Amino acid sequence: MIRGNGRLTATAALVMLASCGSKGDATTTQHPTTEFNADSAMSYVRQQVAFGARIPGSTAAKLCGDWMVAHLRLKADTVIEQTWTHTTAKGVKLPMRNILARFKPNATQRILYVTHWDTRPVADSDPVPANRTKPFDGANDGGSGVALQLALADALKKTPPGVGVDLLFVDGEDWGSFGPPEVDVLIGSTYFAQHLPSADYKPLFGVLWDMIGDADLTIYQEINSANAAPEVVQRVWNKAKEMGYGDVFVPQAKDPITDDHVPLIKAGLRVIDVIDIDYPNPESVRNGVSYHHTLADKVDKVSVKSLKIVGDVALALLR
Ligand SMILES: [Zn+2]
């Protein structure tokens, strides 16, 4: 995913200044807990990284995808795989695989959660030029969202949801260039938008979870989401506040981000992006230090505490 234009970034700088020093310590507050198991989620981050970078077409991607499907078949009522070949602008043929785990597949009232499971092929934002052609772990970028949804599947297996739930894992989010123009990115979400589970598929709402494991977690309201589905943004941020996580889910708009929610919104689905794009934090990024698309995107930059916060909110929204 990529951040949008400079005008909004300037606005963002003001927002960031206003928020300086306001980040509380969530551990000092009592939160209504859910059965979301963040230790399991953390183990799922580690297991993905252990496969190697989940680059489309790689052995690591094949094995990790198989592992995800095996896990989900034990937890969900139905698991659907969408497989196809994407031919890139340069003529490379990429095997693609979306995975959709469904709970109560016949329920008409449904909630859609989305994450990407691929890893960007190279760490092209690494500060060291020689590293920019190397693969990287993607512990947070890719890994954290998958871990979140696998742990949600565990919780939904134990206590089934009242509504239908679809956990979608899309491939090829991060393969190519975000441009503009966008080339060979958001591949899986675009495919899903064109191949919905049914012609009348219309979830009540949807949330894309991306880069939510950052140990230094602050999540602003992404602008494309706030414009397209403001009621969904309100629902998620209200739930977070209700649970005592208002210091992490900051109710302020910041940055339009091109991510997997965009093709879904274009297809008429009300899906928002929950993302902490400033990895590790806005001040660091302002000073030119970011882990995004670098070799530093490793397990040690992800925390159980952050996974627990987002996991609690994500699960409470389904109850
Ligand atoms: Zn990425």
Overall form: globular
Stated plainly, the CATH topology is called Aminopeptidase
CATH architecture identity: 3-Layer(aba) Sandwich
Task: Name the average pLDDT.
Answer: 92
Counting DSSP H or I runs of 4 or more residues, the number of helices is 10
Structurally, the number of domains stands at 1
Query: Which hetero compounds are present in the coordinates?
Result: zinc ion
Helix-strand pattern: EHHHEEEHEHEEHHEEHEHH
Report on the biggest sheet: 6 strands, mixed
Estimate what percentage of residues fall within beta strands: 15-25%
- In CATH, what is the homologous superfamily? Zn peptidases
Question: What quaternary form is this?
Answer: single chain
Query: Ends: how far apart?
Result: 29 Å
Helix content: 25-40%
Walk me through this protein's architecture.
The structure is a single chain. The chain is an alpha/beta fold and 319 residues long. It has a single domain (2-20, 45-316), classed as Zn peptidases (Aminopeptidase, 3-Layer(aba) Sandwich), CATH 3.40.630. Helices cover 35% and strands 18% of the residues. It is built from ten helices and ten strands. It has a six-stranded mixed β-sheet with strand order 2-3-5-4-6-10, sandwiched between helices. It has a two-stranded antiparallel sheet with strand order 1-9. The longest helix is centred in the N-terminal third of the chain and has 17 residues, at 59-75. The chain is globular. The structure holds zinc ion.
